[in-house]
């Protein structure tokens, strides 16, 4: 990180901010504070302009070709599980999904759009590649569910999906501004991918219709079908990754979630 220190000057203190990539840092000098990230997506500028992430202060290219972005470092906190039910969450997600500027930019830098066909192909590849996956009756049932319903999945509208809506990625500033951070997994696809994750993980089922009204749509059978289809894919992918990483406890969590989803689609006749 010496190259970044050279850009900022000797009076700045830089510390790792954690995260899986090791490319994020906190920088501090007297009363000035910045959040730095190496090689973040050019998508960040549009997100900043729309107030979805903390303000982008500057972007600089290093001698080695890396690009470093600096954002406002805001005092705030991640949302807890209960706070995810607040209408502000639904409203911000709707704003993201309905932004033509975000969609235009991501389509320019993202190679492919998530479709039912390429999602099913990804799951099929997992079954063929990872030993033991095919032997599970539950995983086999899940795959057959996906396969049997893939032709009912298409939608007219694709949007920018965040694809990692864990409550830790929702940040509430001390001024009450809500931000959605960590856009490394963003893809263009069916909005049901994001909607389903929030509903299934954070919203009591009796409140789904109310949450969707905050988002700006009515519940429908087609939405529930698409939502559960992508949720099942998420759990299969998560389970397979945990198995490969020997994370047995997390793999068991995905397995239980998958079992619950299959019961839901059966009970609701989806």
List keywords for this structure.
17% strand, Aminoglycoside 3'-phosphotransferase, Chain: A, domain 2, alpha+beta, Phosphorylase Kinase, domain 1, 270 residues, three-stranded antiparallel sheet, 10 helices, single chain
Concise structural overview:
GO terms for molecular function: kinase activity. This protein is an alpha+beta fold.
Fold topology:
Elements: H1 2-8, E1 13-16, E2 24-29, E3 32-38, H2 43-49, E4 56-61, E5 67-72, E6 76-78, H3 87-97, H4 100-109, H5 116-129, H6 137-149, E7 159-161, E8 170-173, E9 178-180, E10 187-189, H7 192-202, H8 208-215, H9 221-244, H10 248-267
Antiparallel strand pairs: 1-2, 2-3, 3-5, 4-5, 6-8, 7-10, 8-9
Write structural notes for this entry.
The structure is a single chain. The protein is an alpha+beta fold and 270 residues long. The protein has helices spanning 2-8, 43-49, 87-97, 100-109, 116-129, 137-149, 192-202, 208-215, 221-244, 248-267; strands spanning 13-16, 24-29, 32-38, 56-61, 67-72, 76-78, 159-161, 170-173, 178-180, 187-189. 46% of the residues lie in helices and 17% in strands. A 5-stranded antiparallel β-sheet has the order 1-2-3-5-4, covered by helices on one side. It has a 3-stranded antiparallel β-sheet with strand order 6-8-9, covered by helices on one side. It is globular, with a radius of gyration of 20 Å. The protein starts with a helix and ends with a helix. Keywords: Kinase, Transferase. InterPro entries: Aminoglycoside_PTrfase, CcrZ_PhaseVar_Mediator, Kinase-like_dom_sf.
């Amino acid at each position: 990180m010496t190259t970044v220190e050279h850009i900022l000057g000797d009076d700045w203190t830089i510390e790792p901010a954690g995260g899986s990539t090791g490319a994020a840092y906190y920088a501090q000098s007297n009363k000035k504070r910045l959040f730095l990230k190496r090689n973040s997506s050019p998508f960040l500028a549009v997100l900043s302009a729309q107030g979805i992430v903390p303000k982008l202060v500057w972007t600089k290219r290093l001698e080695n070709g890396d690009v470093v972005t600096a954002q406002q470092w805001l005092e705030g906190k991640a949302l807890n599980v209960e706070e995810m039910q607040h209408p502000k969450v639904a409203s911000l997600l709707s704003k993201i999904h309905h932004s033509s500027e975000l969609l235009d930019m991501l389509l320019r830098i993202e190679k492919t759009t998530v479709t039912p066909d390429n999602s099913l192909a990804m799951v099929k590849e997992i079954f063929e590649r990872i030993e033991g996956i095919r032997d599970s009756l539950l995983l086999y049932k899940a795959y057959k569910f996906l396969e049997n319903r893939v032709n009912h999945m298409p939608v007219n509208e694709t949007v920018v999906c965040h694809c990692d809506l864990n409550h830790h990625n929702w940040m509430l500033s001390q001024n009450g501004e809500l931000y959605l951070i960590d856009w490394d997994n963003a893809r263009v696809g069916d909005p049901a991918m994001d909607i389903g994750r929030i509903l299934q993980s954070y919203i009591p089922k009796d409140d789904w219709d109310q949450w969707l009204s905050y988002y700006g749509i009515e519940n429908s059978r087609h939405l529930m079908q698409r939502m559960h289809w992508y949720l099942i894919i998420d759990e299969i992918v998560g389970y397979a990754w945990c198995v490969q990483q020997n994370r047995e406890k997390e793999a068991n969590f995905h397995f239980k979630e998958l079992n619950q989803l299959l019961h839901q689609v059966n009970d609701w006749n989806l």
